[in-house]
Amino acid sequence: MTSWIPDLSGASAPLYLAIANALGEAIETRELPQGVKLPTHRQLALSLGVSVQTVSAAYREAERRGLVVGETGRGTFVRGNGQILESQFIMPRRHEHLIDLSINRPASGFVHAEAVHAVFGALAESMDLASMTACRPVQGLDQHRVAAVEWLTRRSVQAAVDQVVICNGAAHGLLLALATVADPGDTVVTDELTDHGAILLASTLHLRLKPLPCDEQGILPDGFAAACAAGDVRALFTIPTLNNPTCTVMPLERRRALAAIARRHGVAIVEDDPYSMLLENPPPALSSFAPELSYYVTTFTKSLMPGVRTGYLVGPPAQVPRIVSRLRATSWMATPLVAEIASQWLSDGTADRLIQWQRDEMTARQKILQRALRGFRYRCQRHALHAWLTISEQWRVEAFVASLRQRNVAVTPAEVFMVGRGNEPHAVRLSLGATRSRAQFEQGLTVIAELLRRDPEPLLAEA
After folding, report:
1. At a CB cut-off of 8 Å and minimum separation 6, what does 259 contact?
2. pLDDT tens digit sequence for 83-92
3. Given CB 3.0 to 4.6 Å as the disulfide criterion, which of 115, 130, 391, 419 pairs with 211?
4. Residue 185 falls in which region: left (phi positive, over 0), alpha (psi -120 to 50) or beta
5. SS3 for 111-180, per residue?
6. pLDDT tens per residue across span 138-163
7. Does 216 have pLDDT greater than 70?
8. What pLDDT is recorded for position 424?
9. Cis ω on the peptide bond leading into residue 137 (within 30° of 0)?
């Protein structure tokens, strides 16, 4: 058992969060190696002069982040970066009475069942077995990349067929892009609040993820320029259109400014763009302003349906062989059958119909959101899948989330999107598409509004 004792001097966060943060830093710097047994709750509490409840809360938070694992009768152990657990705020399965607004996914309806039935029927009648028998080219079948180029052109991304790499969704594409542009220990800068999947990816690849100052329009160019000038920044990762979680859309001039800074310093741009196709007139991709430095990733999981895990990664021509080598190492090639479904939907108009259905459904759900949360502060763009709700300063975010969970409503706290150790925003993310019906969505919002109108409930006192 290690005698690890964190230094909490100057900690601004609640004590249990300060301990969890220090634990995460010690694991990242290898001060606490994989498999080491941590002090017992009581031992660490005595060493720090805090309550056992505070240490227990810290270990629970660390376990939720996938940093440690508790084994009954044995103690708490450090997990390896390759063993990161799914965060507990993401429900492993649907609970019968839970209204889950925590996972960011599109809505679904009968139109999706019709589309699946039609495409499977067409595939059953086809004598072309390439989508079932292919194992080359690793980069993706030619016809799938041709369909991708036509689709990407509509997204303002100009790419040759040889620049497109088919991947298994955006997470896979981002893994390939980040592994191509950065080595373990390299610095990647990003928004102060960004997709938790990217945070896990950076941890898995042993990258140093650092936050950049932001406002309601996204990353501040001056902050990006200062970071590039001060250190060896290898890449900028960002979601400029409908940022997850804040729902911001970066304006055109700021995209140009960030691209110019990246060019000046030779910094790669990794752009995650799963949402822009939901907007009727999205701004041009950030990557389009510096294509020679950019790795653009998009997917259909947020616009068509989660099971269509086909993504497109566009990289600089000279870097495509490096991307493909990493694709071969991680999955040999993306699943051709799913790519075939996506390609057929692109060619026969089904993709456009499903996207328009999603826009219409989000319009209806946003009207419910406006009605249910009237008088409260939140940010949500037209057709977006999520909203960013600001809660009263009287509430602690974790207490608000816990109180909602007791009422069978799940939301995502701001803390899981934070990069670095800044102050946690008083906000939670709400998914508009996760519930089975509009009625269930409204029911969940009603519970949220009722809780927002109440005073915070008492929690266990911390030392």
Report:
1. 269, 286, 289, 290, 293
2. 333 343 444 4
3. 419
4. left
5. HHHHHHHHHHHHHHHCCCCHHHHCCCCCCCCHHHHHHHHHHHHCCCCCCCHHHEEEECHHHHHHHHHHHH
6. 999 999 999 999 999 988 899 999 99
7. yes
8. 82
9. yes
Contact 18, 415 (CB under 8 A): no
CATH classification of 15-83, choosing from 1.20.1090.10, 1.10.10.10, 3.40.50.20, 3.90.226.10? 1.10.10.10
Residue 53 identity: Q
User: Residue 45 and residue 462: Cα distance in Å, rounded?
Assistant: 11
Q: Give residue 82's pLDDT.
A: 36
CB 171 within 8 A of CB 272: no
Check: CB of residue 269 under 8 Å from CB of residue 287. yes
- Phi then psi for residue 384, to 5 deg, are -70, 155
Compute the CA torsion angle 280, 196, 18, 4 (nearest 10 deg): -170
Please tell me whether residue 270 adopts helix, strand or coil conformation.
Answer: strand
Say which CATH topology domain 111-348 has: Aspartate Aminotransferase; domain 2 (3.40.640)
pTM: 0.79
Q: How far apart are CA 194 and CA 244, in angstroms?
A: 6
- Say how far residue 259 (Cα) sits from the centre of its chain: 22
Tell me the average pLDDT of the chain.
Answer: 89
Token pair of 215, please? 């406002």
Nearest CA among 269, 270, 301, 275 for reference residue 169:
301
Residue with tokens 């080595």: 183
Q: Does domain 99-105+352-452 have CATH number 3.90.1150.10?
A: yes
Q: How far apart are CA 463 and CA 458, in angstroms?
A: 15
6-55 tens-digit pLDDT: 888 877 778 888 898 888 888 877 788 877 889 999 999 999 989 999 99
| CB neighbour class for 376 (10 Å; exposed up to 12, middle 13-18, buried from 19) | middle
CA distance 253 to 256: 5
Can you tell me the distance from the alpha carbon of 430 to that of 424, in angstroms, rounded to the nearest whole number? 17
Residues of the chain by 3-state class (helix, strand, coil), percent to 5: 45, 15, 40
